[in-house]
Amino acid sequence: MVNELIELIKIQSEDLKKLLMLLEIQYKMIMNKDVFGLEGLVDKMNECGKRIAQEEVQRRELIGNESIKEIVSNSNDEVLKEVYGNIRKILEEVKLKKDTNDMLLKQEIVFNNKMLAIMNPSKEIKTYNSYGSLSR
After folding, report:
1. CA-CA distances (angstroms) from residue 113 to 5, 65, 108?
2. Torsions phi, psi of 24, nearest 5?
3. Does the keyword Cell division apply (predicted)?
4. 30 burial level (CB within 10 Å; 0-12, 13-18, 19+)
């Protein structure tokens, strides 16, 4: 079981590295405002995510209800401990890059909405409320 788990973790780490590379490409496209490139990148990221999810299902079938942390800590296999440590590090990098990209995309959306509001203001008649502020 340990050898199968090591091989599965290695495969997962390769796919996570591919996802990290795609997230880096996404970051560059966001910074360059390449909307059409971002649209083309979505399918690649979804496919990579599906592969990672399938491998995760295989891992769970292999170890059952046991915690992977417990298996690794109770194991005397140094290779298992090394690949597990590597995959955790890659996962942290993926989470960080994903969160960064999400934040940048949200900022761009807010900026675009504000620019659209400036270029195409509301046609509603604005009135003052009892506090002296404009209300819609």
Report:
1. 48, 47, 9
2. -65, -40
3. no
4. buried
Q: What is the pLDDT of residues 8-60, one digit of tens each?
A: 999 999 999 999 999 999 999 999 989 899 999 999 999 999 999 999 999 99
Tokens of 71: 């298996």
Q: Which domain holds residue 105?
A: 2-135
Q: Name the domain count of the chain.
A: 1
CA distance 19 to 95: 11
Residue 77 φ/ψ region, left for φ over 0, alpha for ψ in the -120 to 50 degree band, beta for the rest? beta
Handedness of CA 95, 101, 102, 104 (dihedral sign): positive
pTM of the model: 0.81
d(CA 102, CA 106): 6
CATH of the domain at 123: 1.20.58
